[in-house]
Amino acid sequence: MRRAILPDHLNSGSFSLRASDKAGVTRTRTAAKDLVTVSRGIRVPVHSGATGSAALRAYTDLDDTSILTSLSAAHVWGAPLSARWSGDWRIHLARRRGFSFPRRANVIGHLLTFLPGEVVEYDGVRLTSPARTWLDLAGLLTVEELVAVGDHLVCCHGPVFPLPRQAMCGIDELRDIIGRHRGMRGVRTAREAVELIRVGSDSAPETRMRLALVDAGLPEPVLNHVLFDGRGVPVLWPDAAYPRWGIALQYDGGHHAGEEQHLRDIDRQDRTDVYGWLEVRVDKHHLEGDRPAVVSKVRRALQSRGWTRDDTSQQ
Q1: Range with lowest mean pLDDT among 40-49, 145-154, 186-195, 212-221
Q2: Which of 108, 247, 250, 298 has a Cα at 20 to 30 A from 35?
Q3: Is 283 exposed, middle or buried, given 0-12, 13-18 or 19+ CB atoms closer than 10 A?
Q4: Which of 290, 141, 153, 140 is nearest to 212 (CA)?
Q5: Which residue in 69, 19, 64 sits closest to 44, CA to CA?
Q6: How confident is the model at residue 259 (pLDDT cuts 50, 70, 90)?
Q7: What is the DSSP secondary structure assignment for residue 2, as one 8-state letter?
Q8: Domain residues of the chain, as ranges?
Q9: What letter would DSSP give residue 176?
């Protein structure tokens, strides 16, 4: 007998039996071999390939009290997690204090206190807000890792950028949530990290680059800087910049290996030269180790443009 086709909203990721019952799907159908039981009352279509919120939504649809938090919420928000955490797909599920403790396969349960605005609905799941997720991570991450997540959440680019981007939250929201949870685990790490978060960093390597330069005593580069031509048309969007010295820092990630991107990089280099700027290209190898090579690379560039250690300017 041919299996009944599942409704689209169940076929694209995880779903709870509660949701399939509401959709009129029989329990016989939810026991079919094309569905995997990943936890009690939760099914995933074998070929769905679901990730992020689609893979996790069933866990908050089991009842009206379950909330994704910590690393699970970070995955949904697309936060850049280091290698030691990015592959950890255990489900962090919380309920408010006073409810029963979440217990099921592959779930790390939490009983937490949430203040108004710290739990939101996003892309079909109930989870902690970006700011609260960041604070929850403070008990797990290093300062640098937490800064990278914070940079991701507050990053925005205006309409003059090729890909405008809106922030998920602001730095003031991060400061505010620290103040509302003074005794929370990791709050000291959060206080240190929030002072280092900046608007305009597109990736964790860009954050590491900036932190390495500042830690080495070099001027802090400017983020979200745009170079305009004589007609006021934007022509260059460096990952970070030293406008005073006409230096553009560009981080080349893995996607720069492709031929098409390589040609775009050559064009960008040509435009940088035309407008009298110096481009410094950085890749992952320049960020490795206790004394990352990016520091000496950028120091040489600054010195070639007249910077000295006695110069107190930050730009």
Answers
A1: 40-49
A2: 108
A3: middle
A4: 290
A5: 19
A6: low
A7: P
A8: 8-56, 64-194, 204-304
A9: H
User: Side chain identity at 265, as an amino acid letter?
Assistant: D
Beta bridge partner(s), residue 97:
99
The residue with greater pLDDT, 253 or 184, is 184
Residue 268 CB contacts under 8 Å (≥ 6 apart), including other chains: 236, 250, 279
Averaged confidence pLDDT in the chain: 92
Would you state the pLDDT for residue 113? 94
The number of residues making up the chain comes to 315
Which positions ≥6 away from 216 have C-beta within 8 Å?
A: 295, 299
Instruction: Spell out the CATH class of 204-304.
Output: alpha beta
Name residue 37's amino acid: T
Higher pLDDT, 177 or 3: 177
106: alpha, beta or left? (left if phi > 0; alpha if psi -120 to 50): left
**Is residue 106 pLDDT above 60, yes or no?**
yes
DSSP string, 252-302: --GGGGSHHHHHHHHHHHHHHHHTT-EEEEE-GGGG-SSS-HHHHHHHHHH
